[in-house]
Amino acid sequence: MAGVLPRQSASRLSASGLSGVGLRTRAERDILAVMTELLYQRDAYLRKFEATVVDRCEGGVVLDRTAFYPGGGGQQPDRGTLYLGDQSRSVTGFRWENDALVHLVDGEPPPVGTIIRGEIDWEFRYRMMRTHTALHLLCGVIWREYGAQVTGGQMYPDRARMDFSLDQFGPERVRRIEARVNEEIAAGRPVRVKFLPREEAFQVPDLIRTRVNLLPPTITMVRIVEIEGVDLQADGGTHVANTREVGGVRIVKTENKGKVNKRLEIVLVDSPVVAT
Ligand SMILES: [Zn+2]
């Protein structure tokens, strides 16, 4: 989704010197998520992983690496389980503590040094990935057809809403957008993730509309999610690898959120919706 600041790996940010400052904004928290290697950023299909507990606090642990998406940018946090020997702990949520991403668990958090196996709730995550990718298609199509930018959005496992700076969403427009989005799904477009140096990202014309120039100066590498030929965004979330995996999208509701702000609600369906 637009406006999502990519998180970075520890090595690039170790010299940022921001650790310990009072955290207020999401952007600052993103920069400081440096202790844990975020495996989902490079492989959204990773369901199981092994990791070591590197810190422990009331109700949770910090891992050296994780496949769990902790939420943000409109995408809901993962659920899942940590296994340690013959025991297990459900992951109930996430919390940011200074520069650390805490996995909250039910029951006693395992001690520092414990090697755990993590497993994410794949059914939930995969639906989030499909929904998230559907929203990118929606952004790309509405940008292409009407030059309208995204002003906000929220995802759920099988539906989502997104706001655009548009003056009107008549029934004709809605049908047209729905048809175009489903065409792009059926076209089987590849979805690619790359990491670009900040200066290079600034040179990509399509990224300007996602306000990549507003990224804090401490972000030296920008994570880019591209749907070939349709959409390109700086983004920290998880997506499917090919638009065909989205299935299909139906626009179920439109809402007036202001003179030039319109909301669309979509649901996922299992196959592309064919225009009638
Ligand atoms: Zn996104």
Question: Overview of this structure, please?
Answer:
With 276 residues, the chain is of the alpha+beta class. It has 2 domains: 35-120, Elongation Factor Tu (Ef-tu), domain 3 (Beta Barrel), CATH 2.40.30.130; 125-269, Threonyl-tRNA Synthetase, Chain A, domain 2, CATH 3.30.980.10. Helix content is 22%, strand content 34%. It is built from 6 helices and 15 strands. The protein has helices spanning 10-13, 26-31, 122-146, 171-186, 198-202, 205-208, and strands spanning 37-38, 48-57, 60-63, 65-66, 80-84, 87-97, 100-105, 115-120, 150-155, 159-164, 191-197, 221-227, 231-234, 248-256, 262-269. The strands form 4 sheets. A 6-stranded antiparallel β-barrel has the order 2-3-7-6-5-8. A hairpin with a 3-residue loop joins strand 9 and strand 10 (159-164). The chain starts with 9 loop residues before the first helix and ends in a 7-residue tail after the last strand. Mean pLDDT is 85; it is low at 1-33. The site of zinc ion has 8 residues, from helix 3.
